Amino acid sequence: MQKTCLNCGMIVDQYVQHCPKCDNALDVQHDGSTITVDIAHQGERVHEALEKMQHEIDAARAGVAMNLRLVVGSGLIRNEVLLALRDSEFRGDIKSFAAEPHNAGAVLVRLK
Ligand SMILES: [Zn+2]
To answer: pLDDT digit of tens for each residue in the chain (112 aa)?
Structure first.
C-alpha cells in the first residue's frame, strides 16, 4: 500500500513517516475530514464494539482523516468506549475525544 503526501503530492510507501521530498511529517497530515462509524447498533456485545472501535481507530490513523466519529448509542457500550478512549488518549494513540454536545450517542475522536 502507498499513500500520498498531502503537502507535495509525492507518493510514498504507507509506513514512511517523513516525506522524502518535502520532509513533512506524514503521520500528522490530515485532510480535515471526519469518518463516521456505527459500532453499537448491530447487536454488538461490549467487547465486540470495543474491538470494532480499535480496528476503526487503527485504520483511520493510517489514513488522512482528522476525526473519527463513533456512534455508540446510550448504554453500556458508550460507557466502556469512553473509558477505553481515555486510555487511548493517555497513550497518545488519539489526540482527544468528546461526546457530541447535541448527540450523546456519538463520540468525536480527534486523531490528528
Ligand atoms: Zn511531501
So the answer is: 899 999 999 999 988 999 999 999 998 999 999 999 999 999 999 999 999 999 999 999 988 999 999 999 989 999 999 999 999 999 999 999 999 988 889 999 999 9
Cα 92 to averaged position of ligand 1 atoms, centre (Å)? 24
Identify which of 67, 76, 22, 5 has the alpha carbon closest to the alpha carbon of residue 14.
5
Answer whether 110's CB lies under 8 Å from 88's CB: no
Whole-number Å distance, alpha carbon 20 to ligand 1 midpoint, is: 7
Residue ranges with CB less than 5 Å from ion ligand 1: 5, 7-8, 10, 19, 21-22, 24
Give Cβ neighbours of residue 9 (< 8 Å, ≥ 6 apart): none
Ligand 1 centroid distance, CA of 40 (Å) = 38
Determine the distance separating the centroid of ligand 1 and the alpha carbon of 111, expressed in angstroms.
20
